[in-house]
Design goal:
alpha/beta; six-stranded mixed beta sheet; 5 helices; 6 strands; 34% helix; 24% strand
Length: 197
């Protein structure tokens, strides 16, 4: 295991307006700086769900296991008109896919820390294959067996509760006014850093 390597897996809902992502890259870079300064290396897997017709998966990969965390507005999958929320299907399949990827990876290349961050606003109303209970089982298994860390940014506290994500790893925000995502990302970054320092 590479103890100084962390993979951050970010799964976000395609109904988040593109404007909300302004400033998030800078916030992530600044927030994780204490860990980078201490020698931590980061890889990023960024995926969207909700507008993935034709992808063959309930999510769309924006980047996978990449050393860069930045994505351009053009790369974002955002469809404000769609309120179909398939959180459970997307998160379950993504966690399974990452697990399969690491099954075929040499032990020395497996990150010492795997962080799975979900950003979802609203309750799941479109998943067909899995349930909250089955995703909760995945979260518990990956947490206790493989030591993955799960975090959530949401406007529904019940999302965290139903998935068994502890309150200390959840950021509950209101989406009533513009600019809600960047402060939430900062709070999650702080939680990730505090867990190590």
């Amino acid at each position: 295991m590479r103890n100084q390597l962390t993979e951050i897996i970010a799964l976000y809902s395609g109904n988040i307006p593109k404007a909300e992502f302004e400033g998030t890259q800078k916030t992530i870079t600044e927030g994780l700086k204490p860990l980078v300064d201490s020698g931590e290396e980061f890889r990023y897997t960024i995926c969207a769900f909700g507008n993935t017709v034709g992808s063959g998966k309930p999510y769309k990969k924006i980047t996978e296991n990449s050393q860069k965390s930045s994505i351009t507005a053009k790369e974002l999958v955002c469809d404000k008109k769609s309120y179909a929320i398939s959180l459970v299907d997307a998160a379950t399949v993504l966690a399974q896919d990452v697990g399969v990827r690491y099954c075929g990876t040499a032990e020395i290349e497996i990150p010492g820390r795997i962080i799975f961050v979900i950003a979802v606003f609203g309750k799941d109303n479109a998943s067909k294959q899995y349930t909250y209970e089955s995703l909760r089982e995945v979260v518990e298994h990956q947490t206790y067996v493989y030591k993955w860390e799960f975090y959530i940014i949401t406007d529904e506290a019940s999302n965290a509760e139903r998935l068994g994500i502890p309150e200390s790893n959840a950021v509950i925000v209101s989406t009533d006014s513009a600019g809600y995502l960047t402060p939430a990302v900062k709070e999650i970054s702080d939680k990730i850093v505090q867990r190590v320092l």
